[in-house]
């Protein structure tokens, strides 16, 4: 079974590329952002907690995220493959993912990194904000999210490099081109 981490800054195209991979390979998809937005929409207690962080461009606390991730993962089993989109976002989350999978006799197969320059990210997210209805897709919050990404999430690049799992791909150009690069890596696993 393949456990694939799709990694990149906000707006790098994790969700879009995950959907294409799901179509091609039939993998299950865990988007922690989507899980949290569904909770917010349903007005659950978790959703109300999440909203406070998300609207501020902050991350949800690790312990909470790790529990949500494990429950979501187990609910999707059995699966031929799982794509982790938006998780891990911190080093403790990466360590927790490794432990969680080890307990289930599994491991991360690869970390696919989508590389996109900052100016392009801001432009994409500001554009997405016009139609997404997402309160966090406004310029001020986008800038906060990029800072949080650089401080808390980007250190995972080295972390996965040391694990021997990091594969970086150019995250701009046509969707098909990017997808083809990701598929090449997956097919080589
Ligand atoms: P992309 O555009 O590449 O899909 P995104 O920045 O839009 O990325 P989402 O994954 O949709 O991000 O997440 C939206 C928000 O949900 C984050 O800014 C954060 O507040 C919260 N969140 C999502 N995943 C996590 C996580 N693993 N840990 C903490 N907070 C998270
Ligand atoms: Mg997303």
UniProtKB/TrEMBL annotation:
GO biological process, one term: AMP salvage
A Pfam family hit: ADK
Pathway, per record: Purine metabolism; AMP biosynthesis via salvage pathway; AMP from ADP: step 1/1
Residues annotated as binding ATP: 11-16, 128, 173
Gene Ontology CC terms: cytoplasm
Catalytic reactions of this protein: AMP + ATP = 2 ADP
Ranges for region NMP: 31-60
Annotated positions binding AMP: 32, 37, 58-60, 86-89, 93, 134, 145
SUPFAM superfamilies: P-loop containing nucleoside triphosphate hydrolases (SSF52540)
One Gene Ontology term of the molecular function aspect: AMP kinase activity
Signal peptide (UniProt feature, chain positions): none
Subcellular location: Cytoplasm
Keywords for the protein's UniProt record, in alphabetical order: ATP-binding, Cytoplasm, Kinase, Nucleotide biosynthesis, Nucleotide-binding, Transferase
Gene3D superfamilies: P-loop containing nucleotide triphosphate hydrolases
EC supergroup of this enzyme: transferase
EC number from the UniProt entry: 2.7.4.3
Domain comment in the entry: Consists of three domains, a large central CORE domain and two small peripheral domains, NMPbind and LID, which undergo movements during catalysis. The LID domain closes over the site of phosphoryl transfer upon ATP binding. Assembling and dissambling the active center during each catalytic cycle provides an effective means to prevent ATP hydrolysis.
UniProt record similarity statement: Belongs to the adenylate kinase family.
Subunit note: Monomer.
Matches recorded under NCBIfam families: PRK00279.1-3 (NF001381), PRK14527.1 (NF011100), PRK14531.1 (NF011104), PRK14532.1 (NF011105)
Role description: Catalyzes the reversible transfer of the terminal phosphate group between ATP and AMP. Plays an important role in cellular energy homeostasis and in adenine nucleotide metabolism.
Name of the protein described by the UniProt record: Adenylate kinase
Species: Pseudoprevotella muciniphila
Protein encoded by which gene: adk
